[in-house]
Amino acid sequence: MREPQGSEQWIEAYGVRLRPFRLDDVEDVAAGCADPLTQRFLDGLPDPYTEADARWWITQGAPAAFASGGAAYAVVDPTTGRLVGTVGLNNPVPPRGQAEIGYWVAPWARGRGVATAATRALSEHAFAGGAARLELLTRPENAISQRVALAAGFRPEGVRRSATPARGGDRRDLTVWVRLAGDPPGPSERPLPDLPDGRLTDGVVVLRRLGPDDAEQTYRLHSDPEVAASRVPPGAPARDEIERRCAGAEGQWLVGTTAAMTILDGASGDFVGNCTLNYDQPASGQAMIGYSLLPRWRGRGYATRAVRLLARWGFDHVGLSRLWAGTLPENAASQRVLEKVGFRREGLLRGRLPGTAGHRADSTIYGLLPTD
Known about the structure:
Blueprint: E1 11-13, E2 16-19, H1 26-34, H2 36-41, H3 51-67, E3 71-76, E4 83-93, E5 98-105, H4 114-128, E6 133-138, H5 143-151, E7 155-165, E8 171-180, E9 200-201, E10 205-209, H6 215-223, H7 225-230, H8 239-247, H9 249-255, E11 258-265, E12 271-281, E13 286-293, H10 302-318, E14 322-327, H11 332-341, E15 344-354, E16 360-368
Helix pairs in contact: 1-3, 5-9, 6-8, 10-11
């Protein structure tokens, strides 16, 4: 990869301009890097971030990025010339034609597509200069950045465990998104689309995406003895496990593996339970569903309504060809829910699930087709 020199370093595309930093950017760089959201997701930034830090970046850090084969650009509004963010290439691996792309957006410019535009512009510039592969690394809970990755044509490749140091001495996982020079232009396809208007409802129950604010109620739900007995493996979860699940739920949705939803009472907005669609067999258009309710809401038809809404979304919006669900043979209540929705019993898988005390548990399998 070769980084052009001189005036060629200016890049203008998709409504943004990328240019080298200038000393008159100091105030805006300092304000952007001191912003709480920027600080939250960029552990390597000094805290507090001062104008002295911004001046060092402009005079030494950014030039060093170019000198090492990477890049560090100010992203500016082409009309006003004001800095609205930054974008750059780091950790270049010339023998592989590979680099990592990263960015932040100033708080006064968020919600305008700046990150997507800058990422697309620099990606195309890097590919034109000989890059073969670009990586974009995000925290699993950073759904905003993951949406940028998808919009800029990057695809998910997996998770690097404990890939980066965090403040306080801990380490964090990173989700890997990749775009190749030969990938088609435009956004990447999403196996699991967003819910229409952000929710599904039949007027009695509401389904919306599971989120961080649901951690307390979700932990209480999965600690219920009946729900805990149906978990795989059975048992009550740790609190931090549930917090991670809720924080990373949108990311799992965007990657295309799991659509985890909160079930709410349509009248009061009270938490009723959870339901999920696990896209476990995308090659054959099949997905598994699961659901659980707090005790006070059971026996009132809420599970049936939630499963019916989830199934219809899976067929009509995801484009599934088949849904399946598994229950413990003795879980008659769950089987009645599935049968009311139209699922048919298809058989028994012996010893399919881990049970208690080292034993294995059978699983009764139900299936639903769009034509059922």
